[in-house]
Design goal:
alpha/beta; Rossmann fold; 2 domains; six-stranded mixed β-sheet; 6 strands
Length: 411
């Protein structure tokens, strides 16, 4: 198998030669120093006794290696940046080969930086182990032992994804995971497991964007992780084929969507979605129960008590906003309209005021967390009472708990 070896070179040639002879890389990348008196870079061409250097002893022909001088071999940040840049460049040049970083030689800082860069990029680690006959020194030439940093990478990856996931930033979490696929070499089984997690994150991202069909198609591959959400999305997916069709489940979906926006600190977007959910409940009720479209009212079906008023306000077609929709329902004798008229109309005005004060609507002060909490308490209670009044039981769509997602990661 073709492989690339990155190796730190210190004051001894033997462990580097041992590693090169054992791994037989197609290409070698040496991290060296040039001070004092040529530093470890001099060992590439000649030994300390004037004999053959590392290149000759390992049989490396011209064009099969590159050496990079570390200007500050005792500065971790400098070493790490240089090593990561060079290793990433080499990774792109030799796509699909085995990548190994040997950290046996060099200063302590150089070896630590190489291990850290390998960990970040997903290279396997190699150390030339020699027999230890005392507590201070390893004796003998030794043999390289390859070690994998993948468990460390996955632990760090899970931590980064968890932080974004719990903030409902599914797009950001998916991007973090995509970076891993681009920069990290993983066994096929681990890659397959992470593809499943990526599909889940992408599916949730499409869900909060109201792209129900794509969300469902991605999440059904992770069905065991989110069965309740899939049951919620199934009817929305069917209706979405002809555009989003009015259903009561859309109201529940907007509530969940508003909650997801608030979790990311997007309180203004969240309040606007709650207002839309309250409005949507009346729209759906009018359409499904009375065949009245609030975007193009058939005035002949509107109660006489409101017909003239709505007709006088109409342009090319008569329409009804949130309050007019509930007034129509009330005059039709509908339980939802009666609930609104008998006590909720004044309270919903507070939600209207919050919505109108939003900077994205008519105000000059962006809405904050307290505004969101007040809107959430109002809208949630009204929707719960309203759907109970008309005998509808809504689902409570929720993303999988983090523990469920974490279990999908390779161990």
């Amino acid at each position: 198998m073709r492989r690339v070896l990155a190796v730190t070179v210190g004051g001894k040639a033997e462990p580097v030669v041992t590693s090169l002879q054992s791994h037989r890389p197609s290409f070698a990348l040496f991290f060296v120093t040039d001070k004092p008196r040529g530093g470890s870079q001099a060992l590439l061409e000649r030994g300390p006794d004037g004999g053959a250097g590392i290149l000759a002893l390992a049989g490396l022909p011209p064009g099969s290696y590159r050496d990079v001088v570390l200007d500050h071999p005792d500065d971790f940040a400098s070493c790490y940046r240089t090593m990561r840049t060079e290793m990433k460049r080499l990774q792109a040049e030799f796509e699909g080969v085995e990548l190994i970083a040997d950290y046996t030689g060099g200063t302590k800082t150089m070896t630590a930086a190489l291990a850290a860069a390998a960990f970040r990029l997903g290279w396997r680690l190699s150390l030339v182990e020699s027999p230890r006959t005392d507590l201070e020194h390893a004796r003998g030439a030794g043999m390289p032992v390859v070690q994998s940093p993948v468990p460390l990478v996955l632990d760090e990856l899970k931590g980064r994804v968890k932080l974004l996931y719990e903030r409902r930033n599914y797009e950001g979490a998916a991007e973090v995971l995509k970076e891993t696929f681009r920069d990290l070499s993983l066994p096929p089984a681990d890659r397959q497991a992470l593809v499943l997690v990526l599909n889940l994150l992408r599916g949730l991202d499409h869900w909060v964007r109201f792209d129900y069909a794509r969300a469902y198609n991605l999440l059904k591959n992770c069905g065991a992780a989110c069965p309740e959400l899939l049951r919620h999305l199934a009817p929305l997916t069917k209706s979405a084929k002809a555009g989003i069709q009015p259903t009561y489940e859309l109201v529940a979906d907007l509530e969940a969507n508003a909650d997801a926006q608030a979790a990311q600190g997007r309180y203004e977007d969240a309040v606007l979605r709650l207002y839309r959910a309250v409005e949507l409940l009346a729209q759906v009720r009018l359409l499904l129960q009375y065949e009245l479209d609030t975007g193009d009212l058939d005035l002949a079906k509107v109660p006489v008590s409101l017909r003239t008023e709505l007709a006088d306000r109409a342009g090319k077609k008569a329409t009804a906003g949130l309050f007019d929709a509930y007034r129509i329902l009330a005059d039709l004798g509908d339980p939802l309209g009666k609930l609104f008229a008998d006590g909720w109309a004044d309270r919903i005005k507070d939600l209207l005021l919050l919505r109108n004060n939003a900077f994205m609507e008519h105000g000059f002060r962006p809405l904050g967390q307290e505004d969101w909490q007040r809107a959430w308490a109002l809208a949630r209670r009204f929707i719960a009472e309203g759907t109970a009044a008309i005998g509808e039981e809504l689902s409570d769509p929720r993303p999988p708990a983090w523990e469920v997602v974490e279990a999908l990661f390779p161990s």
